[in-house]
Write a structure and sequence with these properties.
With 83 residues, the protein is mostly helical. It has three helices and no strands.
């Protein structure tokens, strides 16, 4: 099998230059109009594009909750979910 593989000549292979090049930014938007491309550590803290005032307020509340530090019980605030 290896002999057959290595006996192939690259010059004998067809050139496929008519196929379009796939560009993920142009063709794939998993979140529809809310899709944006951010690979930084802040990607999940960015609001989706096009939020109205109520949705932006909800996003901001979620950011505050997500950034909260939770501690082991007993504690007066954010108890029970820490290490």
């Amino acid at each position: 099998m290896a002999a057959i593989f290595f006996s192939l000549n690259v010059r004998d292979l067809p050139v496929v230059s008519h196929l379009p090049i796939f560009n993920a930014h142009d063709n794939y938007q998993a979140g529809g109009i809310t899709t944006f491309y951010n690979r930084s550590s802040h990607a999940f803290s960015q609001p989706a594009p096009g939020l109205n005032a109520q949705e932006m307020s909800l996003h901001t509340q979620g950011d505050v909750t997500f950034d909260a530090v939770f501690v082991t019980a007993p504690a007066p605030v954010n108890t029970g979910l820490g290490p």
